[in-house]
Amino acid sequence: MTIKLYKLDGSPQVRPPLMLADILKLEFEPVTVNLLAGEHLKPEYVEKNPNHTIPMLEDDGYIVADSHAILMYLVDKYGQDQQQLYPKDLKLRTTVNQRLFFEASTLATARQAAMVGIFKNNATGPDEEGIKKVNELYKTLEAYLSKTKFLACDHLTIADISCVATISAVDYVVPIDAKYTKLSAWFNNLKQEQWYKNGNEPGLEIFIQYLKGMIAKNSGQA
Ligand SMILES: N[C@@H](CCC(=O)N[C@@H](CS)C(=O)NCC(=O)O)C(=O)O
């Protein structure tokens, strides 16, 4: 049986499935999709995923697109004794779902807002609007973490795995203010985990180097 993960190493959305795979000891067959070369728009890719995004999972012919749906699927199917990562209890699961949808809509959009100027408009940093948006979301995350140790409850779930990939990228351009003590502690704790080091750090490094290169270019230093 092979589980293929279509990905590009620097993509923030690809890293949650990689971190989860490290926790669940799942092996993926990696398939690189070069977005810059438009490989995600090729008919054979669009046939599998009409929304032409990465990550995309192919499990014995079954396709799952969207990082959040991939996390849900992998725990349900391969979680074995790790089902607490996506709890079966209705209310706990619904809170996890809410945090995942928060990541998919609000947090991911804020990340893009904070970086779009650097990637597309020759900016050397995030604009005021982007910084404001990200800080509002840090406040929301701080509020979640004031109620429970992790984002959805008192133990790690896929909500944390999803959000930490985005936070780790956004923190580079809008550093988490020290006044958000709970959010800072949560982030520092997760950074110590081996699954974070294995699944997030290599891709994050590529992403940051790319971002640094763009900032240097936009500043006329490259
Ligand atoms: N909600 C999706 C978003 C995925 C996404 O936007 N991926 C970007 C790369 S980070 C992509 O594939 N962009 C190409 C496109 O949208 O055509 C997820 O979490 O998987």
From TrEMBL:
<dbReference type="InterPro" id="IPR040079">
    <property type="entry name" value="Glutathione_S-Trfase"/>
</dbReference>
<protein>
    <submittedName>
        <fullName>Uncharacterized protein</fullName>
    </submittedName>
</protein>
<dbReference type="InterPro" id="IPR004046">
    <property type="entry name" value="GST_C"/>
</dbReference>
<dbReference type="GO" id="GO:0006749">
    <property type="term" value="P:glutathione metabolic process"/>
</dbReference>
<dbReference type="InterPro" id="IPR010987">
    <property type="entry name" value="Glutathione-S-Trfase_C-like"/>
</dbReference>
<dbReference type="GO" id="GO:0004364">
    <property type="term" value="F:glutathione transferase activity"/>
</dbReference>
<dbReference type="Pfam" id="PF02798">
    <property type="entry name" value="GST_N"/>
</dbReference>
<dbReference type="InterPro" id="IPR036282">
    <property type="entry name" value="Glutathione-S-Trfase_C_sf"/>
</dbReference>
<comment type="subunit">
    <text>Homodimer.</text>
</comment>
<dbReference type="Pfam" id="PF00043">
    <property type="entry name" value="GST_C"/>
</dbReference>
<dbReference type="InterPro" id="IPR036249">
    <property type="entry name" value="Thioredoxin-like_sf"/>
</dbReference>
<dbReference type="InterPro" id="IPR004045">
    <property type="entry name" value="Glutathione_S-Trfase_N"/>
</dbReference>
<feature type="domain" description="GST C-terminal">
    <location>
        <begin position="89"/>
        <end position="214"/>
    </location>
</feature>
<feature type="domain" description="GST N-terminal">
    <location>
        <begin position="1"/>
        <end position="82"/>
    </location>
</feature>
<comment type="similarity">
    <text>Belongs to the GST superfamily.</text>
</comment>
